[in-house]
Structure formats: structure tokens, C-alpha cells
């Protein structure tokens, strides 16, 4: 929210009065005087007007989790364990998931209460690459690799997928990098060749690679350096 709008939402100030207080240097954000009305503020910011504390700000939190099989990428579910159930954290219901995985898929999940950070990871315009290890029922062929690189037509959405990089590892396994996240996309891509995906494990999202020290179901907080990668 813009700072002038935040201030004008107070019962004692209108927009003009808010801008006057800003110009007079009476407003501090995170202990710094701010005079620019268009400054964006968030729930994590401490905002003061003179000696009055308007918003204390809450801590931004960022976690990396190694999702196990049989776990739902949701904040709540009436029948199944969710990824939030794996976290031993206060107020975990404030967290949301940046990039979901299917019920039986495994690997990297990122969680945060910072919506702007999460959107930078997941919005299509960011063109974030996501890399997966894939195991299939039938052999993976050179024809599949070439077709993935060209893009595949999805009739339901009436679109062609963006070029994807398929690195064949063994006859039935590959590393796949995609730049979008459509519904069951990887299973549908292999499905066009009649090849069923048996296992899917996400290794990375953009600059974030799953920590090899994290066992399935384990998680850790991101470091300040990691948070600033996007």
C-alpha cells in the first residue's frame, strides 16, 4: 500500500493532511524519515507518526521444505496432512506456499508470509525456471527431448507450452527444466507420448536449490542472502 494511503486510512487524517505530515518529516518507516507519499509499505514495516506508533510491523519469514510423498500442498485439508503440518512454527497459518507440488510429488517447497516475495517467484512474467527429476514407465526417447524443446500443444488451454529442456539420464529417468507451471504440466507432457510419470521430484526453483541436508519432511529457514536472491 502507498504510504499516503496508509496514513489517510487513519481516522484522524485525510489525504491532504497525510501528505502535509510527510512533507514536514513527521513520518518514519523502519526508523527512517520518509517524505515521499508514493513509498510502498507492507505489513512488515514499522511506521511511526511523530511519537505515535501506527504499525509495529511483523517479522517476515521464509522457509525451504523437502516435501515427502502423500502430503498436500495446501494450508489446510480435511483428509490429508498438509505441508504446514510439517512445520513446528508459531502462527504457521500465516504462511503460504510459493509453488505447489502434487500429492505424490516430492522435493523443494518454499513458504513465506511475504506475498510480494512469493509472487516474484511464481508469476509468469518472472520466467523462473523449475527443475525436476522424472522417472517414467516407458523409455524416454530423443524424439521426446526434441519435442519438449519445441513446445507441446495443450488442447484444453489451446496453447503451446514454452520450450523445455529435457536431459535424458537413463532409459527411464531425466532431468526436466520448465519455465511455467500449468496444471499437471509434466505428467501431461509425457502423457502425449503415452508415457506415465511414476515419480516427480523438484530440485530447484530459480536460484533456490533443495538443501541436500534436508530429509523428506524436514525444513529450514532461508538465510538473509538466500532471501535476497530474487
UniProtKB/TrEMBL annotation:
What GO molecular functions are on record for this protein? 23S rRNA pseudouridine(2604) synthase activity; RNA binding
Q: Which family does it belong to?
A: Belongs to the pseudouridine synthase RsuA family.
Q: Which reaction is catalysed here?
A: uridine(2604) in 23S rRNA = pseudouridine(2604) in 23S rRNA; uridine(35) in tRNA(Tyr) = pseudouridine(35) in tRNA(Tyr)
> Entry's PANTHER family?
PSEUDOURIDINE SYNTHASE FAMILY PROTEIN-RELATED, RNA-BINDING S4 DOMAIN-CONTAINING PROTEIN
Output the GO biological process annotations, alphabetical, semicolon-separated. Answer: enzyme-directed rRNA pseudouridine synthesis
Q: Does the keyword Transcription regulation apply?
A: no
- Note the Gene3D superfamilies from the entry: Alpha-L RNA-binding motif (3.30.70.1560), Pseudouridine synthase I, catalytic domain, N-terminal subdomain (3.30.70.580), RNA-binding S4 domain (3.10.290.10)
Could you say which enzyme class this protein belongs to? isomerase
Q: Which organism is it from?
A: Pseudomonas mangrovi
Alphabetical keyword list: Isomerase, RNA-binding
Q: Which domain of life is it from?
A: Bacteria
Positions of transmembrane segments: none
SUPFAM superfamilies xref list: Alpha-L RNA-binding motif, Pseudouridine synthase
Record carries keyword RNA-binding: yes
Source organism lineage? Answer: Bacteria, Pseudomonadati, Pseudomonadota, Gammaproteobacteria, Pseudomonadales
- Give the protein's recorded name: Pseudouridine synthase
- CDD domains recorded: PseudoU_synth_RsuA, S4
Q: What is its EC number?
A: 5.4.99.-
Family annotation (Pfam families):
PseudoU_synth_2, S4
Positions of the RNA-binding S4 domain: 1-58
